[in-house]
Amino acid sequence: MTRTPMLLALLVISILLAVLELMFQSLYIGPVPVPAGTLMILLTMPWLVRATVAELPSAGGAAAPILVWFLTTAVVGAFGPGGDMLLPLSWQTLLLLFTGVAVGMVCFRRAVDRLAGEAAGARPGAGTGPATTTRKARP
What we know:
By secondary structure, the protein is an all-alpha fold. It has helices spanning 4-25, 36-55, 59-78, 91-122, and strands at 28-29, 32-33. It has a two-stranded antiparallel ribbon. It is globular, with a radius of gyration of 20 Å. The relative contact order is 0.14.
């Protein structure tokens, strides 16, 4: 059984979500800016990283949706459809990029730590190092 179709589907979803977040980032309700793309990235990036790591349990699997999201956001944001710039120079752009990268890095770190813990648990003698042993109190 191959996991390639599901992995490709998750990366395509990452591309589509990046484009959707770009479109909703400059949303205004009346005179008030509502950066809905930032809210979307807060909700979708953890799911994308977790689902991709489930299909490809490696650091590369954890990094893939983050890199695809960032590249899609940079390319489509700077050279949008019809030459439109979807990422204007404003605080909303910085908020989207910072939030996407920050959430992505937190999710990446958690995924890699979880993979390392699973790998350490699978090895014989794992968990017996100095960090996991307790010292006896001195009299």
